[in-house]
UniProtKB/TrEMBL annotation:
Domain Dihydrodipicolinate reductase C-terminal: 110-246
Species assigned in the record: Pacificimonas flava
Protein name: 4-hydroxy-tetrahydrodipicolinate reductase
Subunit structure: Homotetramer.
One biological process term in Gene Ontology: lysine biosynthetic process via diaminopimelate
Positions bound to NAD(+): G80, T81, T82, T104, A105, N106, T107
Gene3D superfamilies cross-referenced by the UniProt entry: Dihydrodipicolinate Reductase, domain 2 (3.30.360.10), NAD(P)-binding Rossmann-like Domain (3.40.50.720)
Pfam families on file: DapB_C, DapB_N
Function: Catalyzes the conversion of 4-hydroxy-tetrahydrodipicolinate (HTPA) to tetrahydrodipicolinate.
Keywords: Amino-acid biosynthesis, Cytoplasm, Diaminopimelate biosynthesis, Lysine biosynthesis, NAD, NADP, Oxidoreductase
One cellular component term from this protein's GO annotations in UniProt: cytosol
Amino acid sequence: MGETILAELGATEGAVLGGAAEAAGHPAVGRELGAGDLTICANTSALAHQCDVLVDFTAPAALQANLDAAIDGKAALVIGTTGLGGEHHDMIDRAARDIAVLQTANTSLGVTMLKALVTETARRLGDDWDIEIVEMHHRHKVDAPSGTALVLGEAAADGRGVDLAAVSARGRDGADAKRKAGEIGFAALRGGSVAGDHHIVFATDGERLELGHRAESREIFARGAIRAALWISGKEPGRYTMEDVLGL
Ligand SMILES: NC(=O)C1=CN([C@@H]2O[C@H](COP(=O)(O)OP(=O)(O)OC[C@H]3O[C@@H](n4cnc5c(N)ncnc54)[C@H](OP(=O)(O)O)[C@@H]3O)[C@@H](O)[C@H]2O)C=CC1
Ligand SMILES: O=C(O)C1=N[C@H](C(=O)O)C[C@H](O)C1
């Protein structure tokens, strides 16, 4: 995503690249960025001091360091990293007392709209409609289910008025894997170069309703992240969402 965002930035009016960072010792550190005399650095705090907004697409293990760097440099932060747990959301909530932070599992307009459709559909259909979420991503993806699938699960659970943790079935396998009433099931497929497909299936006796989104390339995520960065620049401390950015 770092490379895709760099490529998209050049084509975005109003956005100016302040730099890029990798972990210390990474082979890319020192590489020229092709914009002025910028190179990839290994000091995210220093980067935050020279930028209005940091954009983080890394891994959960890097989150606290990136939050600390943004606070140190008084920069706003857009977080696209997935695989986050409750402890990571607590870290983000704490940081949001000092800086503006937007965390989202999916920066695309389509998925942001889809969440609202899923909540509304789950709210209106009765409990006799089973809900299953299927996602497919490229062979390099490390976390499963995808962050987006989990957010869509939350959206469905919200519509039903239930707690996702209490009803989610994450990967069925074996001789005793029959669907339980009220479950929200997840299935994760991995292969090739798929940018990101998500489908929510509402199934009852005799019919199925399917809502879905297909990302045709990673550029949509990069464009969404840059749009979020431009929007959050200069905002008061607090936690913001893609819905805020898109005015939904
Ligand atoms: N919100 C959204 O719309 C989207 C979110 N994502 C999410 O963004 C994240 C990144 O995805 P992607 O770009 O495909 O992944 P990549 O593995 O290609 O890139 C991750 C980068 O983060 C670096 N990194 C990993 N761990 C650390 C660490 N502890 N400290 C510093 N740097 C670290 C990696 O370095 P190294 O090369 O050494 O591993 C690498 O440069 C994932 O969580 C993915 O799910 C992806 C697309 C869209
Ligand atoms: O890792 C990816 O590629 C993607 N990750 C995000 C997720 O986990 O939902 C968003 C998108 O689907 C691509």
